[in-house]
Amino acid sequence: MSFKHLFTRSLSAAPGRLHMAAHSHHLWPDASFAGQVECWEDAARLADRKWDRVMGELWPEAQAEVAAELGSGRPDAIVFAANTHDFIIRLWAAAPRRTPGPLRVLTTSGEFHSARRQFARWAESGDIALDVLPPEPYDTLAERLAARAGEADLVMVSQLMFGTGRLVPGLDALAAIASPQGPWVVIDGYHSFMAVPEPPGALGKSCFFLAGGYKYAMSGEGLGLMHCPPGFGPRPPITGWYAEFEDLTLPPGQVGYAPDAMRFMGATFDPSALYRFLHIRRMLASEGLTTARISERVRGLKQRLADSLAGTPLCASDLLDPPSGPARFLALRHPKAAEWQQALMAQDCVTDVRGDVLRIGLGLYHDDADLERFADLAADLS
Known about the structure:
alpha/beta, Aspartate Aminotransferase, domain 1
């Protein structure tokens, strides 16, 4: 079975391209175009009153969709922003400092650039005291972080590592030590949201969870999302007017906050990503495509792709995560990774590279013909 019919606009826009980077910039389904058009039409039709629809209808619908995907049962704990970097800044400002001095941050060397770069710069400027653990061995990472977290104010770790595709087990060990008074635990789910079938569920009682629409939600830019555990950070210092809660009991001039996740809101934003996300979620529902079903399909594609690379230069690589794993990409470590990525790009085959790791991502728009074409290209590499 092929699902290319759901992606006709993206695929026909570049018919010669072989896009093997669904883990990076996932191609947009046709449903996203309908969402973008509806956003524009609502702005034209409703003008100023469009915000009644955005905040009164679309926002809660999107919250419910995310909460259902996370298995948290708490739509009111979901808040949206332009990207996850916005949330990292707000969390840094809001997290409790349990001792005098800069915020003490515990993380790993396997985190994505939004956190890695910002933490490194804050450490350079003295705004945080940074403690970085190696992610390997992954099976003990959560335990090692929990054991080290006694001195930390904020702990951040990915649920699925973007560089290797490895899932971090045992995150409940971190959830057990999280507290409104510190440490705060932040789970980066950018590569697990709508990719890992098992939702984080109970982690949401005490952990923040960050994700976005750019990867497996297929919604493109502009949809950062955060699950906020109740009771953590009731008055974030970095705040926009959307976080204001009209409480008539407040004294004049006092800054009010919503009691739910809206407390972490910023100011005026582009709502088009919400429209795209909701149109895609409706599309998936109408097709009977759950995260579990898509993951099962991609897992089969990954295995067949890995098998097809036997006898090609790529088979000399170190496969960092087995095809049976939940990552939606193969991660191949080899000194020639960057050279191979450039050679493939010259043939209009899109992959990406992180250091010495070539990543080959698969999604709903791939089928066996794509795997055969990629294997032919890989055979010509040197």
